[in-house]
Specification:
By secondary structure, the protein is of the alpha/beta class. 41% of the residues lie in helices and 19% in strands.
């Protein structure tokens, strides 16, 4: 796999593309990544915990009942959480096995297909979320423009992508065959602005691995002149990637801490899925526990 970088703006992408995107995401991606055509109990539980952490990030956007679109619904855990809280949720998922599971198990409204093949009326949603999907798309700018058209004028688009500046992963895992594009904060912000979306804030995960950016259609009162070039970004990213070696990484606590966390997670998942509950039962128990301790802003 060959990965290249734009010398003008620092956008990183795979060239040539390593696979046929439609075939890969419809049939092969989950089998390659999860070794399963539909979620296993451990996948449901793991994704349920991720759904709760994602909810915490966007909770301020969800006061009252909201119309929400979740792009790349996966097994449906995040969409099911929002639906359980009373929001009107639609989903889009290209993988047939995972989409069918989310519909049958949770009763979700999920359109099976790619986002560019789906049609919604303009100004349909208060909140649109696209968690770790944009980097998989063949034309991320077009996808942002399409999602903008479905967003209400005062709505928010939440985009989460891996951070190309991250050094928490092994150097050999910096680039992935399924990630056609790689962003840092400034390149994602610039791409969004090119398509009429403006950052209101962004978050970086504690380990530096993920960027969560909140985007709005509303133009800021003071704007700089748009320029596609981002001086210095190519050199900045290139320097980080070149310096991220196995020797440097193993001289830090990161690989050992991550290995310990994976072991602890595996043991916890075995304990919590030992009775072979259905996916819905697993999530109901997980979400109910959190709801008892924190109503999550429900009115």
């Amino acid at each position: 796999m060959r990965t290249v970088i734009c010398q003008a703006c620092g956008l990183v992408w795979s060239d040539p593309r390593p696979h046929d995107a439609r075939q890969f995401y419809e049939e092969e991606y989950r089998l390659s990544y999860k070794h399963s055509y539909s979620p296993k109990s451990k996948h449901v539980l793991r994704a349920g915990h991720v759904a709760l952490s994602r909810f915490e990030k966007i909770e301020p956007l969800l006061s009252g009942v909201k119309a929400v679109l979740d792009v790349g619904t996966g097994g449906g855990e995040f969409a099911y959480l929002l639906q359980s809280l009373g929001h009107g949720v639609n989903g889009i998922e290209p993988n047939r096995g995972y989409a069918a599971y989310s519909i049958q198990e949770y009763g979700l409204r999920v359109q099976v297909g790619f986002v560019q093949d789906v049609a919604f009326p303009p100004d349909s949603f208060d909140v649109v979320t696209i968690w770790h999907v944009l980097e998989h798309t063949e034309d991320p700018g077009f996808i942002l423009s399409l999602l903008r058209s479905w967003l209400k004028p005062d709505g928010t688009l939440v985009v989460e992508v891996p951070n190309v500046e991250a050094t928490c992963q092994a150097p050999g895992s910096t680039f992935h065959e399924a990630h056609l594009y790689n962003f840092n904060v400034v390149s994602l912000r610039r791409l969004a602005r090119k398509h009429g979306l403006y950052e209101t804030k962004h978050l970086i995960s504690r380990d530096g691995g993920n960027i969560t950016m909140f985007l709005s259609r509303a133009e800021p009162l003071v704007q700089d002149r748009y320029d596609a070039a981002i001086p210095g970004n190519c050199e900045w990213i290139s320097r980080i990637v070149r310096r991220h070696s196995n020797v440097r990484r193993h001289l830090t606590s990161v690989p050992y801490l991550r290995a310990w966390q994976r072991l602890c997670r595996s043991l916890q998942e075995r304990r919590e899925t030992a009775d072979e509950r259905s996916g819905k039962a697993l999530l109901d128990r997980l979400y109910a526990s959190r709801l008892r301790s924190n109503p999550m802003g429900r009115e």
